[in-house]
Amino acid sequence: MSAALYIFLALLGFGFVIAIHELGHFLFAKWAGVRVEVFSIGFGPRLLTWKGGETEYSLSLLPFGGYVKMTGQEDMPQAPGAPAPAPDPRSYLTAHPGWKAAILLGGVLFNFLSSYILLIALAFYGYPVLRPVVGDVAETILTAKAQVVPSPAATVGLRAGDEIIAIDGEKVRSFEDLAASTISAGVRPVTLTVRRQGETVTLGPVAPIYDQVSGRPSLGIAPGRSSRVAEAGPGPLKAGERITSINGTAVPEGITGQDLVYRLQPLLGQPLQVQVTGPAGSRSETVVYGGMDGGLDATLGLPVRIAQVVPGGPAAEAGLQCGDLLMSVDGGVVTGSAQATGLLWGALQRGDQVTLRLRRSDGSDLTVLLTAREMAGRRRVGLALETVRVGLIDTLVPAIDGKPAAAAAAGLRPGQAIVALADGDPADERLQAYVVDQGKRVLLPLDEAMVTALRFQRKPGRLAALMGDRGQAAALSELAGTRIIATQGPDGQPGAPAPGLLQVETASGSARSVDVTVLGAQTAGFITALAPGDWVVGMTRTPQGQMALDVVRGAVGGAREVVLAGRTPGQRLFFDDIEMVPYQLEGPGEAISIANHATHTMIVKSFTFLVRFFQPPESGGLDATKSLQGPIGIFRELKARAERFGLDSYLTLVALIGLNLVLVNLLPIPITDGGQLVFLAIETAIGRPLPEIVRTVLGYLGLALVVGLMLFATVLDIGRLL
Fold first, then answer.
1. According to the 3-state scheme, what is the secondary structure of 371-438?
2. CA-to-CA distance for 182 and 217, rounded, in angstroms?
3. What is the DSSP-derived secondary structure letter of residue 469?
4. 118 and 44 both lie in a single domain
5. Are residues 6 and 123 in the same domain?
6. In the prediction, which pLDDT does 466 show?
7. Is 170 domain-assigned?
8. In which band, very low, low, confident or very high, does the pLDDT at 708 lie, cut at 50, 70 and 90?
9. Alpha carbon distance 276, 273 (integer Å)
């Protein structure tokens, strides 16, 4: 029933903005004395129809449009040669040009006024916003040319927890304001005004960079997540509750979800005394925090290694290398990558220095003292960690809960290698692995072009995907977890079905061929570096930081299946992605400012964004496939607002859709109000109607453009839905 209610609210929101628009046309037509024959909301099969005076009113199934049919006025183009409507004193055609313009503008005027009034009312009630607080700062951004560059936020010194209060002197009230201003700036440098720990700081100027992932100019920051529990595994805490204190220490009000996890992660697997508040009130509970994955890694008993060392960071300066195994942090034994990250975070919350004990690939131990520095908005030592789930197992580690670790219990020993993992249910705590004996690790270096080629996957277009085309899998995904049976290079050595193919066998025993000709001129060298019997486990980094193919060579016999029975040492907790909070007005007049700002953003700025769809990324362009939403996308957003964030957030989106409808209807496209206004202006200037053939051709072109854009956006919506 609740799902049906939210669907109904989404339909009602659509219907409202359309009904208001058509009501504007209707009332101005009546005021001008023009006969209105039909007043319809929606398209498709009619649900309700009734006659009121001279007008037929109807409500149709699909609330994605509507129309007012006036005597003598046709929104749709007429076929060439069709007879002209008979003159009628109450016809739209005989109305004064001023009244015609008023009728055409009536719809957008009503949309504008209804949205403006609704926004002012919401501002006094508590305008819902996503606070412009920095949750995370990205160290790098992937550009349109697939280059990894430092993010503008990291370059300018933004920190997690900073509240951005202005950009180029323009007040920022929400993260949406910040995003719109960033897109509007394009590649033009901007200056940020930030509130940091009670002080106001000015940063910049710094230019946004086009981000290939989001398809738009970006500063490289993520909004602050909510500190409210969105999903909880088995345990005392429930979804919708908020942690207000941990072991007697109050959690600051307004803390981001990222910062809350930063405080909780060092306590992974430990019993905590927490105070929580929620719909049922406040209470005290004892909970063992299990992280976001339930702490599974911390019970597997697999080693943790350094996956990446940031150049120029403290870890790099101390000589740490990719592939080094992390054994302890400030004396705390490492039991998994999540727990190790928590140990690091906890140490850096206590001070600037942390002692790490590591094990090199030659078996030697190394102890280093690192002094952290601020990097990408947090105190860091400049390394990334990963649990060795595939590859050579140099050592085993204990479980976080003191019980036997899953790897040791399954009979896994140092010197063996996990060459593949079986696909499984992410909620299943068992890890199904394939293990080989007596192999040695070999790293085959890859240059940047080879890495890109191996990772590349031919993705089908949106329409092709809807028709069932799955594209072509990346060569790396086809190779990972397989044993090389035979190789054949471009010269056609025997043993494989065709030049440039690798004949492989999966850990479960099925054979297939993998095409590596995507490597071009480097195909032969890549194939020559592999040997029959090699197990390809994936891609990793060499100690020097170069990307390499991770290979287990010389294994005896085939792979055998081993099940690692992990367990959850604590309660799994996920926090809401975003949270809308009421904006606090500085004075009554700010309600007008909020409505003015929303109007300017949705009409003026959005118009400039349309131009960006035709500009290259280097000039601040936008990727339409990642930015445009059609009726389905808007419908889903309306439903999500009502369901997740409440009536105020839902009404805010309704108001913004109304303002967006103003922009769309004023575009000078035939069959829109703006296009009809252009026709009216031309006809008034020349003193006669446009030739019928001109109106017809332009009308059909406009219809084709609008329908084409609608179909394009709808295909994008369906693709995202799938």
1. ECEEECCEEECCEEEEECCCEECCCCCCCCCCCCCHHHHCCCCECEEEEEECCCCCCCCEEEEEEEEC
2. 7
3. -
4. yes
5. yes
6. 46
7. no
8. confident
9. 10
Question: Is-catalytic flag, 22?
Answer: yes
In the structure encoding, which two tokens stand for residue 2, read together? 């609740």
Give the DSSP H or E segment for 259.
helix 257-264
Rg, C-alpha atoms of the chain: 31
**For strand 190-196 and strand 163-167, is the pairing parallel, antiparallel, or unpaired?**
antiparallel
**Domain endpoint, select from 500, 520, 554:** 554
In the set 22, 241, 579, 590, the catalytic residue is: 22
Range(s) of the domain holding residue 365: 304-387
Show the tokens assigned to 104.
């055409």
Please report which residue ranges of 127-239 form alpha helices under DSSP H: 152-156, 175-185
Q: What is the pLDDT of residue 472?
A: 56
Phi, psi of 36 (to 5 degrees): -105, 115
pLDDT of residue 444: 94
Please check whether residues 36 and 97 belong to one and the same domain: yes
Residues 542 and 649 in one domain: no
Confidence bin at 467 (pLDDT 50/70/90): very low
Domain count within the chain: 3
Q: If 0-12 CB within 10 Å is exposed, 13-18 middle and 19+ buried, where does residue 721 land?
A: exposed
Alpha carbon distance 659, 653 (integer Å): 10
79 pLDDT higher than 70: no
Q: What are phi and psi of 389, to 5 degrees?
A: -90, -25
DSSP state of 691: P
Helix (H, G, I), strand (E, B) or coil at 243: strand
Please give the structure tokens belonging to residue 314: 């403290």
Residues in the chain: 722
What CA–CA distance (Å, rounded) separates 117 from 528?
A: 71
* pLDDT tens digits along 121-158: 999 998 899 999 999 998 888 888 778 888 999 899 99
Q: Give a yes or no: residue 600 inside a domain.
A: no
**Last residue in a domain, options 535, 554, 573:** 554
pLDDT at residue 119 greater than cutoff 70: yes
Residue 205: asked if its preceding bond is cis (omega within 30°), the reply is yes
List phi, psi (to 5°) of 586. Answer: -80, -15
* One domain, residues 370 and 455: no
The pair of three-digit structure tokens given for residue 605, joined into one six-digit string: 């700025």
CA dist 289 and 282 (Å) reads 19
Residue 105's pLDDT is 93
Q: Is 45 buried (19+), middle (13-18) or exposed (0-12) by CB count in 10 A?
A: exposed
Residues 461 and 363 in one domain: no
In this structure, the answer to whether residues 7 and 112 fall within a common structural domain is yes
Quote the longest CA-to-CA distance of the chain: 99
User: What is the spatial distance between Cα 368 and Cα 360, in angstroms, rounded to a whole number?
Assistant: 13
Look up the CATH number of the domain holding residue 368: 2.30.42.10
Burial 78-91 (b: 16+ CB within 10 A, else e): eeeeeeeeeeeebb
Poorest-confidence range of 311-315, 425-429, 461-465? Answer: 461-465
Residue 340 has pLDDT above 90, yes or no: yes
In a domain, 65, yes or no: yes
| Residues 7, 121 share a domain | yes
What is this structure's pTM? 0.79
Task: Please count the other Cβ atoms lying within 10 Å of the Cβ belonging to residue 437.
Answer: 13
- Is residue 43 in a domain? yes
Q: What is the mean pLDDT of residues 660-667?
A: 90
- The helix/strand/coil state of 673 is helix
